[in-house]
């Protein structure tokens, strides 16, 4: 059955960029809560890591929904659902995986929690969960099934596996919905509070966002074209260049948030030759999905680090990475530092900024993956030398306190 869906074209409204004065606070540390560890190995309750000294193409992902944890291991071609103690509740795995062979030879009577997936796809490590505990994960399809766009500029290489918890067989979603054309490279996937799937892809022109209705069919297709992103002009800074760093949907409303970093050309004063770029500013632009209009942006202050040498002091400004948006409209930004991670949380409606530091031993963390829940809890999977750790940071308590005030 053919479904109607909308293709959204972005309209630019000129903005008068003015300084937004936010209330800020000193940076404090927030403690991590270690929930459980996962040993390395090939059995069902373990994570498969071939060589910790040469970890290469890491394909792990983590998500948390209602206190349950979902971890995907791309190398082992399996997906685990666990409780907060680390006990496996459900295990999904490819029928051609080593996990499948091990389970066939196992004497454990646990078939009720084991589910084979009969498609030989690879999993790069992105997943999202909806309120019904349905699982969405990105799959890379075999080379002989990949497709090219009509103009030959894009390769359609990935699809979305949807695991439905009502006993139905898994289904695959493409650009139009079930059984549709594969996607170009997927940057990340999200579910909204309405249980609608949002797929953010990269393209030669910027990004393409596919927003699906609850029935799985395409509702909106929104191109975010780099050349159409609002520019800023400052004669003192010289030529301005921009980078679309990330695009993330609002979990409650039909909005996208486009994070844009601006840089200026650096000209050597002696030779008068362009010799590099300087970071200038970061803006977060809301886009109305239904109208395609850019709305008034929010300035995202960068992380600042000072270096003192002899009698001089240099301050470096580094833009954060955009982590996500909560159901209450808090925008989360993250940056790895020598001491761990710095988090910046912005609530533009109340003009408040919170900054916190997560202290971690980065020398022991080989790989990390973080996700933000709609309630504002940050969950992290740390791949370390001896085992993997699952921790969370209760940043939701911070924004709850601020909302109460």
Q: What does this molecule look like?
A:
The protein has 405 residues and is mainly β. β7, α1 (98-104) and β8 (114-117) form a beta-alpha-beta unit. The protein has a single domain (6-16, 25-404), classed as Neuraminidase. Mean pLDDT is 87; it is low at 12-25. The protein is built from 2 helices and 31 strands. The longest helix is centred in the last third of the chain and has 10 residues, at 395-404. The strands form 8 sheets. The protein has a 5-stranded mixed beta sheet with strand order 1-18-17-16-15, with no helix packed on it. A 5-stranded mixed beta sheet has the order 2-28-27-26-25, with no helix packed on it. A 5-stranded mixed beta sheet has the order 4-5-6-7-8, with no helix packed on it.
Overall helicity: under 10%
The low-confidence parts are 12-25
What would the average pLDDT be, to the nearest integer? 87
The CATH superfamily is: TolB, C-terminal domain
Radius of gyration: 22 Å
Identify the strand order in the major beta sheet.
1-18-17-16-15
Task: Please report the total strand number as a whole number.
Answer: 31
> Judging by the overall fold, what is the CATH architecture?
6 Propeller
Distance between the termini: 50 Å
Total of domains: 1
CATH topology: Neuraminidase
Oligomer: single chain
Number of distinct helices: 2
**Biggest sheet, open or closed, and with what strands and sense?**
5 strands, mixed
Structural class designation? mainly beta
Percentage of β-strand residues = over 45%
The CATH class assignment is Mainly Beta
Shape by Cα distribution: globular
